[in-house]
């Protein structure tokens, strides 16, 4: 018991010398090894950060990865019998769909349009989500429809009969399906 020193203020015991508040040079409280707590201020971790035993890179930026390439000059309608699988969906931030207008009278592809559907719902383990182009009520305006489902750790993008439903829809083709992936 000789190592424990009681600190007193006006004769009232405040805390033992082993308490963090009594250690010289320590301002504030120490961070506990277990439990949840808020840590204020800026901390400089020189040796890296880990979450669940895996290193976290603070400088990592998402990179684009082509999953399916239809750049053969024609593109794809992506009908209900066609699907594309994106493996390892846990680090996918975005799905990128690239469409082109197909001009069968003028020699093929005219221009390409990238579109990013919202996949936030899939992050919360919903079984499927559908994405439909904005003009789906007008048969004279082209639109595309896909469904995205989660199977294990993969996302499966499946086309729809609507993608070849009318002549306007046949004028738009999928050129590329890609993802923005965190490393």
Secondary structure layout plus pairing:
Blueprint: E1 6-9, E2 12-16, E3 49-51, E4 54-56, E5 63-69, E6 83-86, E7 92-103, E8 108-115, H1 120-123, E9 128-132, E10 145-151, E11 154-158, H2 167-170, E12 172-181
Antiparallel strand pairs: 1-2, 3-4, 5-12, 6-11, 7-8, 7-12, 9-10, 10-11
What count of domains describes the coordinates? 2
Number of helical elements: 2
Number of strands: 12
Biggest sheet overview: 4 strands, antiparallel
> Which percent range fits the helix content?
under 10%
Keywords:
mainly beta; 2 domains; 12 strands; 4-stranded antiparallel beta sheet; rod-shaped
Describe what this molecule looks like in 3D:
Helix content is 4%, strand content 40%. It is mostly beta strands and 183 residues long. It has two domains: 51 residues, no CATH class; 119 residues, no CATH class. The strands form four sheets. Strands 5-12-7-8 form a four-stranded antiparallel sheet. A four-stranded antiparallel sheet has the order 6-11-10-9, with no helix packed on it. Strands 1-2 form a two-stranded antiparallel ribbon. It starts with 5 loop residues before the first strand and ends with a strand.
């Amino acid at each position: 018991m000789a190592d424990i020193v009681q600190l007193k203020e006006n004769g009232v015991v405040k805390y033992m010398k082993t308490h963090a508040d009594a250690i010289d040079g320590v301002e504030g409280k120490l961070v506990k090894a277990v439990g949840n707590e808020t840590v204020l201020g800026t901390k400089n971790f020189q040796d890296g950060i880990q979450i669940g035993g895996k290193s976290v890179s603070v400088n990592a930026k998402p990179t684009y990865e082509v999953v399916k390439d239809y750049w053969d000059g024609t593109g794809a309608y992506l009908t209900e019998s066609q699907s594309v699988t994106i493996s390892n969906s846990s680090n996918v931030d975005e799905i990128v769909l690239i469409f082109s207008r197909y001009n069968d009278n003028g020699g093929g592809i005219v221009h390409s349009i990238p579109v990013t559907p919202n996949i936030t719902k899939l992050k919360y383990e919903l079984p499927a989500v559908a994405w439909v182009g904005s003009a789906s009520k007008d048969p004279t305006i082209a639109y595309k429809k896909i469904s995205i489902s989660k199977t294990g750790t993969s996302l499966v993008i499946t086309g729809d009969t609507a993608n070849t439903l009318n002549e306007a829809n046949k004028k738009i083709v999928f050129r590329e399906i890609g993802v923005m992936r965190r490393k």
